[in-house]
């Protein structure tokens, strides 16, 4: 019933030509969170799939980070192995590097403000057990597209 009254009142005000001031407000989304960005990179070590690195965008913090997830089989077969994980950009010296172990399923770097480099493009990368071949997710430009392909690592075989 209230909807009908409001519509009738608004119609009546419009038809009479009365100007009603309307307050303006900035509306912010009620939700924010983390999302995967670009294409992930996969790591294979000692002939086995070890896990995957991906770039994460946190819309709450307006930040980018790198995320790693171990393969369950690799975790079981190689307890104590380490991953070195990095978020970086070819357009700035700013980066964050973290080391994690198989005792934790997920490893994350700290975040960096995504607008630091110009152009605003970031890449997540990882290597396992100190291998020289780093897996890389795609180089993601925050204008909305991949600028570089992802690279899978086949190191330490």
UniProtKB/TrEMBL annotation:
The keyword Signal applies. Residues 1-25 form the signal peptide. Keywords: Signal. This is Secreted protein. It comes from Streptomyces monashensis.
């Amino acid at each position: 019933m209230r909807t009908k009254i409001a519509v009738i009142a608004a119609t009546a005000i419009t038809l009479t030509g009365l100007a009603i001031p309307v307050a303006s407000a900035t509306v912010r989304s009620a939700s924010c969170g983390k999302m995967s960005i670009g294409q992930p990179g996969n790591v294979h070590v000692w002939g086995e799939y070890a896990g995957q690195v991906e770039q994460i965008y946190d819309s709450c913090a307006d930040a980018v980070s790198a995320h790693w997830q171990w393969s369950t089989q690799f975790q079981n077969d190689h307890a104590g192995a380490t991953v070195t994980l990095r978020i970086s950009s070819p357009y700035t010296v700013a980066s964050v590097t973290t080391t994690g172990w198989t005792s934790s399923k997920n490893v994350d770097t700290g975040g960096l403000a995504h607008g630091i480099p110009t152009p605003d493009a970031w890449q997540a990368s990882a290597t396992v057990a100190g291998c020289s071949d780093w897996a890389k997710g795609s180089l993601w430009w925050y204008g909305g597209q991949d600028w570089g392909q992802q690279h899978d690592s086949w190191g330490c075989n």
